[in-house]
Amino acid sequence: MNGTVDPGAADAADPGPGPAASAAGPTPTPTLDVDRSDPAYRAWLAEAVRKVQADANRSADTHLLRFPLPEEWGIDLYLKDESTHPTGSLKHRLARSLFLHGLCNGWIRPEAPVVEASSGSTAVSEAYFAGLIGVPFVAVMPRTTSREKTRLIEFHGGRCHYVDDPRKMYAEAALLAERSGGHYMDQFTYAERATDWRGNNNIAESVYSQLRRERHPVPAWIVATAGTGGTSATIARYVRYMQHDTRICVADPEYSCFFDGWRNGDPTATGERGSRIEGIGRPRMEPSFMPGVIDRMMKVPDAASIAAVRALEQAIGRRAGGSTGTGLWSALKIVAEMAGNGSKGSVVTLLCDPGERYLDTYYSDAWLAEQGLDIGPYAAAIAAFLATGHWPD
Description:
Elements: E1 11-13, H1 39-59, E2 64-67, E3 75-81, H2 91-104, E4 114-117, H3 121-133, E5 137-142, H4 147-155, E6 159-163, H5 169-180, E7 183-184, H6 187-194, H7 203-210, E8 221-225, H8 230-241, E9 247-253, H9 258-264, E10 296-300, H10 302-316, H11 322-340, E11 345-351, H12 365-371, H13 376-388
Parallel strand pairs: 3-11, 4-5, 4-7, 5-6, 8-9, 8-11, 9-10
Antiparallel strand pairs: 1-10, 2-3
Helix pairs in contact: 1-2, 2-3, 2-6, 3-4, 6-8, 10-11, 10-13
InterPro entries: Cds1, Cys_Synth/Cystath_Beta-Synth, TrpB-like_PALP, TrpB-like_PALP_sf
Enzyme class: lyase
Family: Belongs to the cysteine synthase/cystathionine beta-synthase family. Cds1 subfamily.
């Protein structure tokens, strides 16, 4: 495809050290006074932490799926299937870490609500953990969030509070927490801090453990997508800590400022609208997004993301959300580069959440037409690559 059809060609390698994505972040919203030496509170806290840690023992590991490629290429492509978590998405890991972080810092207390700004999947997972420890939960989210996600938040006992402008989620969530005496979780600030990136069966450690007996046990590339930026930060830090020869690529959707901010070393970069690919892409550079640990970024058109998840269903019989498609599109382009220069090795990306949450959007031809999205050229490019081993020009 030529440049006019394939804006996904926007891509860049590491521009070198740049400024941090943001300042240290806001001070956590204070909760109503509680006597933290009170035996009743200490007992509640110990039980809450136990319940969250028990969930980790039950659900921390997830499957690593192979995407079928011709054996003779000598390249293996895997998807880490995070949709098998109890709340059905990659955000289950983040929510668990955020709750342990908030509990152990004394920010979450009995009966006080937890409030979060979220485009959906994090809120589903946080609603689950709030229900697990018995505290109220409120999700501040765009009115365009999929109906299935709002149903799941309510299923787990949470309440949805809508905003028309996604850029106003943060302030609205902080205000609700202040008014209720609750805690604003603020995933966009604390995602990279709450996760234990050195190990403890985090997503990176799990991937390397599962690849141990594969023919290419150390992946050449791991491709992630960014909503908070916490997952890419965790994987990249772990890779450096363990001294693996793996590079990190972050795939960014069409209406997101992360690519431009990273490429230009601009922590003040902003976007004009919210992302159509739920769960990833942001209108501002988030504090948890860490440009300095990323080797490469790709800008992926929304139509390419959707074509990729439909190709995934044809390849392995599994539906996934749009963020999976964003990462898969970039992973396939990296595989094409490797095949083109004769490199052997493995590439890993993420299956972030199930496609059943998006039947009325990414899997709806009517929605695509309404959005003016033509996935045909991108679907054709993927099909041609898988058939010939060459990415169309």
